Amino acid sequence: MQLIDIGLNLGHDSFDPDREPVIARARAAGVVQMIITGASPAGSREAASLARTDRQHLFATAGVHPHHATELTPEVLTELESLARQPEVVAVGECGLDYFRDFSPRDVQRRAFHLQLELAARVGKPVFLHERDAHDDFRAIVREHRASLVGGVAHCFTGSGEQMHRYLDLGLAIGITGWICDERRGAHLLPLVREIPAAALHLETDAPYLLPRDLRPRPATRRNEPMHLAHIARVVAQARGESVEQLSATATAASRALFGLPA
Fold first, then answer.
1. Which domains are present in the chain?
2. pLDDT 10s digits, 13-56
3. How far is CA 122 from CA 125, 126, 172, in A?
4. Across 108-212, where does the E strand assignment appear?
5. pTM, entire model
């Protein structure tokens, strides 16, 4: 079984004491490639730097999360474009809209989102997308730019079936995390994942966040790790009525195709 974690925050300071063992545990669990999320100017620099340490197995995104939208100055946008043109950076983002937290004003979020979609079109790389409680505005902005984009994924999808199909109709892929393992908040995803075409289904941990709630035995800490992608894959495969080997093969092929990863 070979898996690709399309979204993890490997630069997070919780990994500072043991980042190499975390990577080794993931590899031992079948996670053969990982895409490190860049969600701020500093985080994007760190993600790219980590990816350069292992160009066959580690990759990065470069972008500004809506929480950091006020940081997207013209100088930062220029820096992001330089990063996005590097071979180890395989997507622009994490970018999008977040009206749940509203850490940045909504008009600033929308402007930053437009600018990063334009950047993705210029560099010819897909977008790694974030949306929370902002579906209508998010969808309208993506639709405006969609013809110029090479592709994108709705990262950490947790929405409704109607929202999922709207994203699929826009040609976006869907990223599924350990949220699907949460019986309190994610059970609605179990029937929905059956409706995602295999070529549009991607797997991710969003580590160190979103530790699957149904892991047994329970880990000693709440820190999620990329090795737990194997558990997420088993849950998704069961929900889809597939073997985990079949799911891992199709999800890995989908991720390599979208992000241009080497086999």
1. 3-259 (3.20.20.140)
2. 999 999 999 999 999 999 999 999 999 999 999 999 999 999 99
3. 8, 11, 18
4. 127-132, 152-154, 173-176, 201-203
5. 0.98
